[in-house]
């Protein structure tokens, strides 16, 4: 294992272009994570791999930058009164179990159908989950936007909150009292998705909103606590296997700590449904992006025939559209922040006369 | 006498709401200029600056008002507000009323002296005065406070920025050897974990102060943003009625 890491370290040439690329992707990823609670780092693993970093080192280094970033974002949003620590840690506990289940499923698929089967499973999960959840979140965000911007608790959440199944837990900041047993499926699904597509928040945040009845603002902030707890556990595991390239982690962290704080500040300006809007937009574009990657794995499994040139083009489209998803999210965040800041107008004063 | 000076290139007969800013004898105080630009920005109005030549100074007045109006319109322009300038002579109230009719859609008039307001009782739109007292305590305290807090943030940004740069320099001057030691695995796993935590503290503090320095800070908390609460309606329990028994023989002994 250590040899793989050392080979990778020798292999990567950290030139100015690489450093700038990692810093920028880190910044934009951080901005999105600070705003929607997760989803900013999914470009980094393929991004690092495109620079020549082996897959395992890329995954490990990505995770190692994610948990301090989530910690800083959670701290910042905690100061704004948006984080429910109790909710975050309760979900993180079941998410930890979800990660283990996800890893076991992955191993089973890997043993049965090989790497192409595993990749196909990941891509199909990506497309299925992101399309279903993304469309639902988008519809909800559009409805809220049309009805004047007030968030309402989902019907399912109302019903679950009214069921008295001990132990009942009160989450003060989220303003929710619900049975512990209803938090478990949300946590498990978050962990399962995190182990499969590395972005658990795409199911964790909608789960908190539509199953538990938490507002988008508190859900996205509390997701940062879940990401911190899960990421720290995963990073220690990867670091013990010597898979973390500290240089890559620190460069990405330099950008993402700037971005995550800007994203967190952004949540205080925009209307709550904008969090859902950004999340749904990113999810749907990423789903399309992963859709372009599916033919490659189908070909590897011998299910379809396609020439190498087309596969290469589809792979490029997939990566570019993933970057586009992140950029679109960042643009919406910055534009809505700008718009909201204009509304809270404060002009510059006249320069003092000598 | 009426003269329109177009300071911005846009059409001065725009059909937008306006605030009429009056400078008696062509003088617009800094306080008045700052306030009118702030209010216009918040309300989404344009500005119409009116210089009134009360003392009939003629060309001298025109020269003075042009300089002052240019300053006001430049300030407005910097903040994305359209501004036009007018010159009139004679009585302030008459000049203001004429300007209101010529300019159209004037929401209210801003002046910098309460004495001027008192002379404009018959003006058809509200007239508001802005205090231009240079010794106004509130202003001085505010600006001193803002200056000191800005310098504190600047010092913190510089301090954390230097510390962050030093940390990065320490790692990247020996990048390859550091990376190899950190990737040894086992108990060496503590090294990358502790390092990222330390970096996130130093660099995170730098990032926080940098955004503050650039004026990007969280908006004040809005009470309207609270989520809808799902809770059972409390049943109003009937409070037992208190009965006081008055003893009519209470003070009989005294």
C-alpha geometry of chain A? globular
- Overall pLDDT metric of chain B: 75
The multimeric state of the shown protein is heterodimer
What is the CATH level 1 assignment of the largest domain in chain B? Alpha Beta
**Gap between N and C termini of chain A, in Å?**
68 Å
Overall average residue pLDDT of chain A: 85
SS-based class of chain B: alpha/beta
Radius of gyration of chain A: 21 Å
In the CATH scheme, what's the topology name of the largest domain in chain B?
Rossmann fold
Largest sheet of chain B: 6 strands, mixed
Flag low-confidence runs of chain A.
Answer: none
**Can you count the beta strands of chain A?**
2
Give the largest interface: A-B, 68 and 53 residues
Topology summary:
The complex is a heterodimer of chains A (354) and B (254).
Chain A: H1 2-11, H2 16-36, H3 44-50, H4 55-79, H5 85-146, H6 155-162, E1 168-171, E2 176-179, H7 180-197, H8 201-212, H9 216-240, H10 246-267, H11 273-300, H12 308-343
Antiparallel strand pairs in A: 1-2
Chain B: E1 2-5, E2 18-24, H1 30-43, E3 46-53, H2 59-78, E4 83-89, H3 92-103, E5 106-111, H4 114-118, E6 127-129, H5 137-172, H6 175-182, H7 190-213
Parallel strand pairs in B: 2-3, 2-5, 3-4, 5-6
Antiparallel strand pairs in B: 1-4
Helix pairs in contact in B: 5-7
Describe this structure in words.
- The complex is a heterodimer of chains A (354) and B (254).
- Chain A has 354 residues and is mainly alpha-helical.
- Chain A has one domain.
- Chain A is 77% helix and 2% strand.
- In chain A, strand 1 and strand 2 form a beta hairpin.
- In chain B, helix 2 links the parallel strand 3 and strand 4.
- Chain B has 254 residues and is of the alpha/beta class.
- Chains A and B meet through helix 1, helix 4, helix 6, helix 9 and helix 10 of A and helix 1, helix 2, helix 5, helix 6 and helix 7 of B.
């Amino acid at each position: 294992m250590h040899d793989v890491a050392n080979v990778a370290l020798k292999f990567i040439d950290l030139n100015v272009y690489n450093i700038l690329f990692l810093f920028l992707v880190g910044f934009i990823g951080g901005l999105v994570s600070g705003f929607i609670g997760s989803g900013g780092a999914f470009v980094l693993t393929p991004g690092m791999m495109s620079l020549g970093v082996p897959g395992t080192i890329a995954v490990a280094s990505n995770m190692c930058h994610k948990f301090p970033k989530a910690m800083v974002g959670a701290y910042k949003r905690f100061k704004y009164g948006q984080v429910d620590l109790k909710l975050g840690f309760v979900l993180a506990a079941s998410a930890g179990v979800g990660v283990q289940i996800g890893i076991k499923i992955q191993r089973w698929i890997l043993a049965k159908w090989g790497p192409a089967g595993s990749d196909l499973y990941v891509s199909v999960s990506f497309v299925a989950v992101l399309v279903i959840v993304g469309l639902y979140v988008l519809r909800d965000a559009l409805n809220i936007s049309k009805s004047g911007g007030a968030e309402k608790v989902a019907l399912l959440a109302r019903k679950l909150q009214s069921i008295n199944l001990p132990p009942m837990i009160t989450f003060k900041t989220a303003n929710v009292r619900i049975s512990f047993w209803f938090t478990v499926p949300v946590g498990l699904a978050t962990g399962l998705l995190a182990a499969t597509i590395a972005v658990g928040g795409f199911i964790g945040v909608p789960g908190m909103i539509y199953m538990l009845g938490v507002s988008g603002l508190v859900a996205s902030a509390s997701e940062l606590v879940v990401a911190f707890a899960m990421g720290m556990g995963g990073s220690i595991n990867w670091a013990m296997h010597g898979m973390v390239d500290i240089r890559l982690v620190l460069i990405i962290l330099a950008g993402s700590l700037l971005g995550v704080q800007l994203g967190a500040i952004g949540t205080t300006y925009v209307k709550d449904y904008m969090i859902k809007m950004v999340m749904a937009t990113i999810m749907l574009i990423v789903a399309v992006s992963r859709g372009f990657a599916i033919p490659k794995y189908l070909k590897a499994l011998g299910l379809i025939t396609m020439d190498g040139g087309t596969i290469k083009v589809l792979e490029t489209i997939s990566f570019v559209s993933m970057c586009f998803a992140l950029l679109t999210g960042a643009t919406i965040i910055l534009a809505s922040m700008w718009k909201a800041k204009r509304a809270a107008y404060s002009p510059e004063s006249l320069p003092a006369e000598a | 006498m009426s003269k329109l000076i177009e300071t911005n290139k846009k059409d001065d007969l725009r059909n937008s709401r306006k605030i009429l800013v009056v400078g008696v004898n062509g003088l617009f105080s800094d306080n008045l200029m700052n306030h009118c630009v702030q209010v216009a920005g918040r309300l989404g109005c344009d500005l119409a600056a009116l210089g009134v030549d009360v003392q009939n100074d003629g060309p001298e007045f025109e020269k003075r008002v042009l300089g002052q109006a240019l300053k006001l319109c430049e300030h407005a322009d910097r903040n994305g507000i359209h501004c036009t300038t007018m010159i009139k002579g004679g009585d302030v109230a008459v000049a203001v009323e004429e300007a209101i009719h010529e300019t159209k859609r004037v929401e209210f008039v801003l002046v910098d002296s309460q004495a001027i307001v008192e002379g404009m009782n018959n003006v058809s739109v509200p007239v508001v005065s802005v205090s231009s007292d240079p010794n106004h305590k509130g202003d001085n305290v505010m600006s001193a406070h803002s200056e000191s807090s800005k310098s504190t943030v600047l010092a913190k940004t510089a301090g954390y920025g230097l510390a962050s740069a030093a940390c990065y320099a320490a790692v990247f001057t020996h990048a390859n050897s550091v990376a190899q030691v950190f990737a040894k695995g086992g108990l060496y796993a503590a090294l990358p974990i502790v390092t990222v935590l330390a970096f996130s503290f130093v660099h995170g503090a730098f990032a926080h102060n940098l955004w503050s320095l650039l004026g990007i800070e969280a908006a004040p908390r809005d009470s309207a943003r609270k989520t809808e609460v799902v809770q059972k309606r409390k049943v109003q329990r009937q409070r037992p009625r208190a009965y006081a028994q008055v003893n009519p023989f209470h003070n009989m002994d005294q």
